[in-house]
Amino acid sequence: MTQAAVHAGAAPGAVMAAQANNEYLTFTLGKEEYGIEILKVQEIRGYEAVTRIANAPQFIKGVVNLRGIIVPIVDMRIKFNLGEANYDQFTVVIILNVAERVVGMVVDGVSDVIQLAAERIRPAPDFSSSSFDTKYITGLGTMDDRMLILVDIEKLMSGSDMALMEQATLQ
Amino acid sequence: MSQSHSDTQAGDASAFDMGQFHQVFFEETVEHLDNMEMLLLGIDLDAPDAEDLNAIFRAAHSIKGGSGTFGFQDLAEVTHELETLLDRVRKQELSMTREMVDALLASRDVLGGLLGRHRGNGDGVPAEVIAELVARLRELAAGTKSGGEAAQAAAVAGRKIVIECGPIEADAPPELRERLTAALAGLAQQGSPTIEHDGAVLRAGVTTLAGDEEIRESLGFVIDPARVTIVNIAAAGTPAPAADPGYGFFDDAPASAAAAPGTGEAKDPGYGFFDALPAQPAGAAATDAPQGPPRSYGRRATDAPDVVEAKAGRRGHDRNLVAAQSDATTIRVGVDKVDQLINLVGELVITQAMLVQKVNDVDAVQQQKLLNGMVDLERNTRDLQETVMSIRMMPMAFVFNRFPRMLRDLAAKLGKQIELKTVGEQTELDKGVIEKISDPMTHLVRNAVDHGIELPEARIAAGKPAQGTLTLSASHQGGNIVIEVADDGAGLSRDRILAKAMERGLTVNDAMSDQEVFQLIFEAGFSTAETVTDVSGRGVGMDVVKRNIHALGGRVEIHSTAGRGTCITVRLPLTLAILDGLSVSVGGEMFIVPLTYIVESLQPAAAEVRTVSGRGRVVQVRGEYLPLVALHEVFGLRPEVTEVHKGIVVILETEGRKTALFVDALVGQHQVVIKSLESNYRRVQGVSGATIMGDGRVALILDAVAIARDMQAAMAEAA
């Protein structure tokens, strides 16, 4: 941090970007631990009652009112079949800001915010059989003895299999 | 820092600034053009209003100045010619003619086209069109008034003269000179006359519109007309009498030229006497340009009161009073900022409603201050919401103003005589509605002109004045705005519509009410016009009109009397952001049905619900069989009520057809703020949007049209 401050005089933008780029918010789904870029996260909230949307896939729980904006809520546990989809006062929703949209995502729990240096990130092996398509995984990070699955959350949320956005609007 | 470096910086900075100002220039130019058009159309050729002429000139001048500054040479060139012509007209050197109005209107279009190209929309204007226009303007500007009358007018109009009165007898009462001075002041068109007493002669420099005869007449009350000598100095082509250069007040020529530097108007440097005059028009225009339009700009005049009243939080009072003196300041604000404000206020209202619910339980005696505070909060929130909503409100004049020009062109093309009357231009409605209502209104007006109003001969034969009248009116009625397009033309022919409908295989019968028959003209491809013109008659349009108006949550009604005229009434909600809705519950979820589509709600008897070929169900309502849609089936919900006769049926009318919607229960009627589902999610079939209820939960707004349409499609498939 102090180092960053020293360098800030020279090229503040570059340092900030580099710094932000390797900061990740980690969360758990079942026994797996995931990491997403912190800049995509708007806030973390508790789960509240949703308004269901007709004919939507099961993992789209519905929409909620987030300070006047209608925000869809996706349950990642249902989407990736990890953990148990129960809703109580400990259920956590990560509100994301991706592709100029606001989307809420239900996860098992939020762990912490970590910094990962580039050398601690390894490319992900190709698991074509996994429910998690590899194209959304940017790499695997190591943090002590933990393994983090780093996800390009923007690409995932705007992908066609999330059925969150009109595909025509993305092209 | 080196010189060159700072130069580059300055260059960069100005390039950046220019880009920023371009948008403002474009917007202002559009306003100037619109304003110019409005004034041109309103001009009375026999007696043009000097203030209007000045305003037109100033508009052209501002555009020229701006386009020069921003390097839009093509705009500047055309406006330069325009300005030259207008300047001569304004100075009364030329009188306004119909050809001039036509040429000026044409240049307005050309300028609009050029502007469009600079803004990146439209293809601009072909060079030959511009060249032709410039030539036309030059020709008109070079022209002189025709005939003796015109020559006299030129000599008289706004000229600068010296009036010599005298000799005045030495024994004349002293008040004679005072009365003379007052009479001369009365003649002066601009400023006060400069009076000099030269022994027995009183000499005055006056700028006046009055003719020589008129001057003698008015002075005749004071002094014998024979003793009045009028010397023309600045009328076109009249050289100042070289014999009397020693009038004394004219000898400071160089000083006067210097006093009006750069005006380019000091053509008569010999008469420093008048230095205030030539400088004045140019000076006024020059100062106007950077400051923005002066007070006489009609469009600003309608803008300003809205802002003032928005601030005051009230609408619909003393509009004329405010419009008359609209020096009020306005600011340009992006619509997105206003929308954000509206969103935030919407939030505030919801939060406030939630607080009210919580506070209901507290002890009223112990928490009196809290409760008082809640009352204040409620009132302030409501006022704030009203005020913020009114920012988006714009007067109907924005729509109506485009019609005088259109009507003028249409009437000329069709050989009809039409007078346009507008009523209630100041009626306000949401900007979003204004934008979307323009096209349907244009269709309705075109139709009225083409099919409604007859040719002059036919009108006279029918005992009506040759000139037809088209009346556009707007007014508030409850939460709606009612817009009427009325003509005094031939009216709709019920028989012809019915015949045409039968020909097209529509299910009609003679027992249908007039209203139902007239609604047929909104069917796609329906036209009873005997001939197709390039104005209308192809039967495309009226169905689009109806669809557009429905999409806005509005309705269209037609009233017509054969031979007397037609009146088309459009009812629209005041704003797109708020919707009147009926909330219904199905399977624990709440849905909002837009009130505009609801005919009635009822609980049918068990015997009134039938099945058709084992699949679809119908409800019998007063002899009509209506297809039944169960909302829980549409949305895949588990309903609390499965039998139709135990629940509620809401009868919807969409696209002229009725559908029965089966729901668990009615909850209540609300005004809801419409929120988009699509901004963060996607379009959902059968849902047009969402809203936030008083308890903070989201309720979906039903797309009644889509639901009914899907139902009909499913029925057609089943059949």
CATH class call of chain A = Mainly Beta
- Rg of chain B is 34 Å
How far apart lie the N and C ends of chain A? 40 Å
**Beginning-to-end CA distance, first to last residue of chain B:** 85 Å
CATH topology name of chain A, in short, is OB fold (Dihydrolipoamide Acetyltransferase, E2P)
In the CATH classification, which architecture of the largest domain in chain B applies?
Answer: 2-Layer Sandwich
How helical, in percent, are the residues of chain A?
Answer: 10-25%
Strand order of the largest sheet of chain B: 14-18-19-17-16-15
Task: Write the CATH fold name of the largest domain in chain B.
Answer: Heat Shock Protein 90
CATH superfamily of the largest domain in chain B: Histidine kinase-like ATPase, C-terminal domain
Please identify the structural class of chain B as seen in this structure.
alpha+beta
Largest interface: A-B, 25 and 31 residues
- Outline of chain A, from the CA principal axes? globular
Set down the secondary structure blueprint.
The complex is a heterodimer of chains A (171) and B (719).
Chain A: H1 2-8, H2 12-21, E1 23-29, E2 32-37, E3 41-46, E4 60-66, E5 69-75, H3 76-79, E6 92-98, E7 101-107, E8 109-115, E9 121-122, E10 137-143, E11 146-151, H4 153-158, H5 167-170
Parallel strand pairs in A: 2-11, 5-7
Antiparallel strand pairs in A: 1-2, 1-8, 3-6, 4-5, 6-7, 9-10, 10-11
Chain B: H1 3-42, H2 50-69, H3 73-90, H4 98-119, H5 127-142, H6 147-156, E1 159-165, H7 175-187, E2 194-198, E3 201-208, H8 212-220, E4 228-232, H9 253-259, H10 276-291, H11 298-312, H12 319-324, H13 335-359, H14 368-391, E5 393-395, H15 397-400, H16 403-414, E6 418-423, E7 428-430, H17 431-452, H18 456-461, E8 468-477, E9 480-487, H19 494-503, H20 514-519, H21 542-551, E10 555-561, E11 565-573, E12 578-586, E13 589-594, E14 598-602, E15 609-612, E16 616-621, E17 624-630, H22 631-635, E18 648-654, E19 657-663, E20 665-673, E21 687-692, E22 698-702, H23 704-718
Parallel strand pairs in B: 6-8, 13-22, 17-19
Antiparallel strand pairs in B: 1-3, 1-4, 2-3, 5-7, 8-9, 9-11, 10-11, 12-13, 12-20, 14-18, 15-16, 16-17, 18-19, 21-22
